[in-house]
Write a structure and sequence with these properties.
two-stranded antiparallel ribbon; two-stranded antiparallel sheet; 5 helices; 4 strands
């Protein structure tokens, strides 16, 4: 034996066998998931217990409701109120010289006619 190594040395690592779920049907065991003495719970017992799934679905539903409320609130902030929108509507008038339509607040009123610029007011009606 080289360097004094035994022929029956322990391996550097060991493989532990993880117990699996029992193979008997749940009804024969007395319930859906029956705890096994001294053994860790199997995958189905850990991840698909009745209460855990309900809690996850409830959290997802609450998340969707919160997200919908948040988006509705953001949309309401981006739109002006109805009274503000009504104030922005304005009558349009036609320039007596060139015929261009413009808001009444931007038009120049002179001699019973509306004009778009001071030059058109000086030139008068066509």
């Amino acid at each position: 034996m080289p360097f004094g190594v035994d022929s029956y040395a322990e391996p550097l690592y060991s493989i532990k066998r993880i117990p699996t779920c029992p193979t008997t049907p749940p009804a024969a065991q007395g319930g859906l998931f029956q705890e096994r003495a001294g053994a860790p719970p199997c995958y189905a017992e850990r991840h698909f217990g009745g209460e855990g799934v309900f809690k996850i679905l409830l959290l997802i539903a609450i998340g969707f409701v919160v997200l919908a409320l948040f988006r509705a609130y953001q949309r309401s902030l981006g739109q002006p109120s109805s009274s503000t929108r009504e104030k922005t509507v304005e009558d349009m008038v036609k320039c007596a010289h060139c015929g261009v339509n413009l808001p009444r607040s931007e038009a120049i009123y002179s001699g019973g006619n509306f004009f778009c610029t001071p030059e058109h007011r000086q030139l008068g009606k066509k």
